[in-house]
Design brief:
The protein has 314 residues and is α/β, with parallel strands linked by helices. The chain folds into three domains: 70 residues, Winged helix-like DNA-binding domain superfamily/Winged helix DNA-binding domain (Arc Repressor Mutant, subunit A, Orthogonal Bundle); 113 residues, Periplasmic binding protein-like II (D-Maltodextrin-Binding Protein, domain 2); 106 residues, Periplasmic binding protein-like II (D-Maltodextrin-Binding Protein, domain 2), CATH 3.40.190.10. It has ten helices and twelve strands. α1 crosses α3 and α2 crosses α3. GO terms for molecular function: DNA binding; DNA-binding transcription factor activity.
């Protein structure tokens, strides 16, 4: 690398280098930031030339960070996060409910609440550019922490540092069974009935799976009781129930959508107090748009009133 005083790097160069440092793969890094691979490679090379430091060790098989690259990658991320915060502050200084709002939603909420969310945005906030990202909880929290997402709609509590929860509602779980199941149609199912049922759950990584397992443990279900995990989504889970492979737990907001497609299903309701989950919005602590997000939560609580849920107090 040539000597001399380093030149000022561009944000584009820093963004390209940070992506390569994260993925250690040029193609994956380029895809992650929406840049062509040649442009990304050129940006990293230009950054190395500007700084007078070799950042990467390139081989035919893989990309590695040099010792200097390891140190400077952390600095680059800090700079990019600071620039992102500056842009967020500037956007918040403009009129509220304008510009882009990147909303992350978990898969067991998205199909059932998004129609209400989208109607609210179209009616009350027509200048808001809502961009929806459906991901599992861990990915959403990572996106919120790194500024990729602005606001989350998901099940709580999260116990995540630096995250503020804005509760929206609580909803009960119901038991979905094959039509001829002995618990089908009952309205007073004791939680203890979960001890020995053939229970179908979502795949690992879904918070709804963890919530269902917690409910079962509270009911006294032993670790050895059969649990069949073979569904990536609630629609598949319900089809398996309709086929007679077992029973499952569904949140009330999902019931009409997921059970309305089959006559082979019936629903049972738990005796009070029924197992339930809480859904909330989540934002970064100290977010520049905090007042805007709190107002959005209030408007959403009103809009969600017709659903079979118990609205939380603001």
């Amino acid at each position: 690398m040539p000597g001399g005083k380093p030149r000022q790097p561009s944000l584009s160069q820093l963004r390209a280098f940070a992506a390569v440092a994260e993925h250690l793969h040029f193609r994956d890094a380029a895809a992650a930031i929406g840049m062509s691979q040649p442009a990304l490679s050129g940006a990293v090379a230009a950054l190395e030339e500007a700084l007078g430091v070799q950042l990467l060790e390139r081989t035919t098989r893989k990309v590695l960070l040099s010792p200097a690259g390891e140190r400077l990658a952390a600095r680059a991320r800090t700079v990019l996060e600071a620039v992102g915060a500056l842009m967020e502050e500037a956007e918040a200084a403009r009129a509220p409910f304008t510009g882009v709002l990147r909303l992350g939603v978990i898969p067991t909420v998205a199909p059932y609440l998004l129609p209400t969310v989208l109607r609210l945005v179209r009616k009350r906030y027509p200048l808001l550019d809502l961009q929806v990202h459906e991901e599992q909880t861990a990915s959403l929290l990572d996106g919120l922490a790194h500024g990729r997402l602005d606001l989350l709609l998901l099940a709580v509590p999260l116990a995540a540092p630096g995250v503020v929860e804005l509760p929206l509602f609580d909803e009960d779980f119901v038991l979905v069974t094959p039509r001829d199941h002995w618990l089908g149609g009952r309205s007073d199912i004791p939680r203890a009935a979960l001890k020995e049922l053939d229970l179908l759950l979502l795949d690992e990584g879904h918070c709804l799976r963890d919530q269902a397992l917690d409910i079962c443990r509270e009911a006294g279900r032993t670790e050895g009781a059969p649990v069949t995990t073979s569904a990536a989504g609630l629609s598949t889970l319900v089809q398996l129930v309709a086929g007679g492979l077992g029973v499952t737990l569904l949140p009330r907001t999902a019931l009409r959508v997921e059970t309305g497609r089959s006559e082979q299903l019936t629903t049972g309701y738990f005796a009070d107090p029924a197992p339930s989950r809480r859904i909330a919005l989540a934002m970064r602590a100290g977010a520049a748009r905090q007042e805007e997000f709190e107002a959005f939560a209030g408007a959403l609580r009103e809009a969600l009133g017709p659903l079979p849920v118990r609205i939380a107090k603001g």
